[in-house]
Design a protein that fits this description.
Layout: E1 3-12, H1 18-35, E2 38-43, E3 48-56, H2 57-68, E4 74-84, E5 96-99, H3 102-112, H4 128-138
Parallel strand pairs: 2-5
Antiparallel strand pairs: 1-3, 1-4, 2-3
Helix pairs in contact: 3-4
Amino acid sequence: MSLYHLVYQSRALVPLTAPELAQLLKQARAHNRQLLVTGVLLHAPDGRFLQVLEGEEADVRQLYYEHIRSDPRHYHCQVLGEGRCAERSFTKWDMGCRIAQAKDINALLQSNALPPSARPSTQPSIRPELMKQLLDFVGTKTIR
């Protein structure tokens, strides 16, 4: 058993209405339950997404690389980090959701940024600062 997590950002092709976001979450939760994938989705009114996926490595990678990345509702999918993890951070959420402001997402992204000289040539792992800030940001105000 290899626990794995992946964080990515993207932008909605067109802004999602509240019912469209609810439908997206309903589909994601049903699919994630089948795969035993947990995580959280941050959505900003400007159409930005930041999502954490966690579960078995094969399931998380398949979900992102074969399903999410090809979803036509969004573009500019960028993996911010991925790798093995000791434990799940969002154990109770098959897909939690939190509405965020663009400034909140920018602050989270800055916590994961590395100076150009320190960037690895391979896919970076998720920096602990990002996970801590995500957990602090999500807190108990997650939409279920």
